[in-house]
Amino acid sequence: xxxxxxxxxxxxxxxxxxxxxxxxxxxxxxxxxxxxxxxxxxxxxxxxxxxxxxxxxxxxxxxxxxxxxxxxxxxxxxxxxxxxxxxxxxxxxxxxxxxxxxxxxxxxxxxxxxxxxxxxxxxxxxxxxxxxxxxxxxxxxxxxxxxxxxxxxxxxxxxxxxxxxxxxxxxxxxxxxxxxxxxxxxxxxxxxxxxxxxxxxxxxxxxxxxx
Length: 211
Ligand SMILES: C[S@@+](CC[C@H](N)C(=O)[O-])C[C@H]1O[C@@H](n2cnc3c(N)ncnc32)[C@H](O)[C@@H]1O
Known about the structure:
globular; alpha/beta; seven-stranded mixed beta sheet; binds S-adenosylmethionine
C-alpha cells in the first residue's frame, strides 16, 4: 500500500527485480544532454553548493562545475562511482532496500539527486534521511528531465506530465518534516533539447537537531 496521499500502485515498477541487477551493467554515459548538464551545474553554483555534499543515486558524473570541498557519491554501481573524479568517498547502497543514509545527523551542507528521484520506491524515507543528515539551512536538490529507464521508474512518475512530476517531488518535500517550502523551476526554458526541472528545499533550522 502506497503512503497517503499516493494511490495504490504509485510506487510499483514494471521491473520489480532487485535494482542491483539492472544497475550491474556499467553505464558510463550521460542521461541528459549537454545543455541540461550545464543547467544542473549552474544551479549548484547558484545555490552555492561548495561545502560538504552528498550525491545520492550517483554515477560517474555529479555535474558540479567545480567540485565542492567534499563529495560523497552513493549509487548502485561501483565501477561508475569509481570513475567519479569529483568524489572523495563512494558508497554502494540500494536505497529501495535500505533507505537510510549511513551518516551522522547534520553531516552535510547539501544533498543532490540528479535524474534519479523517479527510481525511489520509498522517497519519503529517503527525504526524511536527507533532512536528518543536512545541517540547518542545508539544501536537498532534485533535478530531472523527461527521460528515464521506464521499467525502473515508479508508475506514478510515468503516468503524469512534467508539471505532474514537479508536483510529485514537491509533495515529497511537503510530506517530510524539517524542510521549508520547496522551490520549483524549469532551469533551461526554451532549450531545444532536454528540459531540466529542479525542485529544492532547505532544511528548517528550527527543527534540526543541530540547533
Ligand atoms: C539515470 S542514472 C543517473 C546517474 C547520475 N545521478 C547522473 O546524473 O548521471 C540513475 C542512477 O540512480 C541510481 N539508482 C537507481 N536505483 C537506485 C537504488 N535503488 N538505490 C540507489 N541508487 C539507485 C543508479 O545507480 C544510477 O546511477
